[in-house]
Write a structure and sequence with these properties.
5 strands, Rossmann fold, Serine Threonine Protein Phosphatase 5, Tetratricopeptide repeat, binds flavin-adenine dinucleotide, single chain, DNA Cyclobutane Dipyrimidine Photolyase, subunit A, domain 3, globular
């Protein structure tokens, strides 16, 4: 009987997991997760570590229900895997591909070592609809613009049908010599203890494969209605909130694709064709971000457009701190950053506004913002985060033009017209009338005092005059435009 090992990474699910499927279809399988904190990859941020902990706990349970086991270890996979493979007499190793440069290098190195030892290694795509190298321009080059990218991706046809979860996962026991390396989930110390700041995240999310499926079902059957218009509204529960589930591979994009296609066929999907197409195109942006990351391995650290290397950033650590804490004095910006701090997630429209405010109004390097999101988002994603920050900065592929400076007041008035979102996250200004809520500095003294507000005391004065900040950004960006 063959002895196999499936190395779980960002694919924490049983269903539609082609690599696990290849391992579990015959013989005994050792299911292994290795917490790799040794510098092979960018360390996970605090919020993502919390998510990972909860997701591993769920995977543990679902494997157990199939008769299997999940073994946890910590260390360098380049050392651990060959040791386990040899010690447990494994002949076949499977994993789902990853796309960051450091992970690709590590995986290649491990594959070589294992292959040299006569072990078969099977790697599969379980994370994307298309591999990043499969969608190319007519001239065979990587794509730089989203619309032709997505058109070319769609022309490749429907993704294959998702696979069911394996009926059974026969466990392969670790031999005694290796058993001491296996850890309990608590030993990984993924969750903060003192203080425990995860209450808001626990309330907001159900990590794990079952949580992802429930979220998808709910969204397709209900939330999708009006998505094309309402997806910009942070005051409504208007988007799928599948991003952390996708990030950790608790659900695959082709499961989402086919669930939606099926629901449309049977009439069970809420919403119009326009809603469904818009939603699919957002999955397209995720694919495009991975395409960019694969072809530009330094996407999180280097300007895609090198003209931005000469950009005159005004580094100001105090300004960055106020932004991080949601104390800028600009209500929509503060609301978004507080939502992020409490729940580990922020609405996409507000992500754009807070990023634009940091980069353009405060002239802080986009990498400082990317880093903060990396630490605080439960969906912190190596491709989406880097590509999106560069998109807002104007330094990215198919990016927002440098002169697009989001005005947080008009953005608030348009997308949070009754102020429900701002009132929820910035309660200290909730008593202002709607017309002043997004710009409390315009209120007269009597209006402020009627709302119980003293600017500069109970709520900050804006850190920057918006018109001045906009003009200063335009001048700074114009300086590098021709370089
Ligand atoms: P939905 O609207 O329901 O979309 C469905 C899925 O499509 C999402 O789950 C996501 O996987 C993908 N998607 C949606 N919008 C985008 C987008 N603009 N770019 C790439 N993929 C998208 N997304 C992350 O997953 N991780 C990040 O670290 C991340 N950082 C971001 C940073 C900034 C500055 C900005 C502006 C956007 C960032 N995004 C990131 C993209 C987007 O904000 C989130 O994917 C989205 O808000 C997730 O919510 P949802 O699942 O409800 O999205």
């Amino acid at each position: 009987m063959t002895r196999r090992l499936h190395w779980f990474r960002d694919d924490l699910r049983l269903a539609d997991n082609p690599a696990l499927h290849a391992a579990a279809d015959d013989g005994e399988v050792l299911c292994l997760y290795i917490l790799d904190e040794g510098g092979n990859r960018r360390p996970l941020g605090g919020a993502a570590r919390w998510w990972l902990s909860r997701s591993l706990a769920q995977l543990f349970e679902s494997l157990r229900a199939k008769g299997g086991e999940l073994v946890l270890m910590r260390g360098d996979p380049a050392t651990i895997l060959p040791d386990v493979v040899e010690g447990a007499g494994i002949s076949h190793v499977t994993w789902t591909r990853r796309y960051e440069a450091a992970a690709i290098t590590l995986d290649k190195r491990i594959k070589e070592t294992l292959s040299d030892a006569g072990v078969t290694v099977t790697s599969c795509n379980g994370h994307l609809l298309n591999e990043p190298w499969e969608v190319v321009s007519k001239a065979g080059q990587p794509m730089k613009v989203f619309t032709p990218y997505w058109r070319a991706a769609r022309e490749r046809g429907e993704p294959g049908q998702p696979l069911a979860a394996p009926a059974r996962v026969s466990p392969l026991k670790l031999p005694k010599a290796l058993a001491s390396q296996a850890l309990d989930l608590a030993d990984l110390a993924l969750e903060p203890q003192k203080p425990d700041w995860t209450g808001g995240m626990r309330e907001a999310w159900t990590p794990g494969e079952a949580g992802a499926q429930a979220q998808l079902e709910d969204f397709i059957g209900d939330g999708l209605a009006g998505y094309a218009e309402d997806r910009n509204r942070p005051d409504k529960r208007s988007t799928s909130r599948l991003s952390p589930h996708l990030r950790f591979g608790e659900i695959s994009p082709r499961q989402i694709w086919h669930a939606l296609a099926m629901a449309r066929e049977t009439g069970e999907a809420a919403g119009s064709d326009k809603d469904a197409e818009k939603f699919l195109s957002e999955l397209g942006w995720r694919e495009f971000s991975y395409h960019l990351l694969f072809h530009n391995p330094e996407l999180a650290s280097r300007n895609y457009d090198s003209r931005f290397d000469a950009f005159p950033w005004h580094r100001d650590d105090e300004a960055l701190r106020r932004w991080q804490r949601g104390r800028t004095g600009v209500p929509l910006v503060d609301a978004g950053l507080r939502e992020l701090w409490t729940t580990g997630w922020m609405h996409n429209r507000v992500r754009m506004v807070v990023a634009s405010f940091l980069i353009k109004h405060l002239l802080q390097d986009w990498r400082a913002g990317e880093d903060w999101f990396w630490d605080t988002l439960v969906d912190a994603d190596p491709a989406n985060n880097a590509a999106s920050w560069q998109w807002v900065a104007g330094s990215g592929a198919d990016a927002a033009p440098y002169f697009r400076v989001f005005n947080p007041v008009t953005q608030g008035e348009t997308w949070d017209p009754k102020g429900d979102y701002v009132r929820r996250w910035v309660p200290e200004i909730a008593a202002l009338p709607d017309s002043l809520l997004h710009q409390p500095w315009e209120a007269r003294k009597a209006e402020l005092s009627a709302a119980g507000i003293t600017l500069g005391e109970t709520y900050p004065k804006p850190m920057v005059d918006l018109a001045f900040g906009r003009q200063r950004a335009l001048e700074a960006f114009a300086a590098i435009k021709g370089s």
